[in-house]
Predict the structure of Glutathione peroxidase.
Amino acid sequence: MPSTISDIQVKTIAGADKQLGEYAGKVLLIVNVASQCGYTPQYKGLEELSQKYGAAGLRVLGFPCNDFGAQEPGSNSEIVNFCTTKYGVSFELFDKVRAKGSQQHPLYAKLTSAVEPKGEVSWNFEKFLVSKEGEVVARFRSSVGPDSPELIAAIERELAK
């Protein structure tokens, strides 16, 4: 398993390889997203976080995932179209990943073993907060919305460091 998030390679939603180390010095909010979920309206709040804190160094990274209720069946281009037209998403989206199971992406293997509660992602829109140094510092369940005081406080704490 990679020692930090920075060591992990992912694919952008356009199919290009990207090293998460490119975000060194930024605070990351990594979210497994889906277009047909009860939590899908959280896209709006994630975009608001991106807009509000982007200049301060926050990067929201959305990883489409079809692991939970097959709620992200679309192609990458369909996902981009949905997110931009319905929610005005401008934060970065990536290629679909497996967040759990035997084909779990290395990113999610690292995220789910780094902070409490440890263990597999249980549903869409779980959020992981990563420090400027690439360390996973907090995990928030799907029910914790982007406008949640506890999430906002954690983001502001990391940005202030």
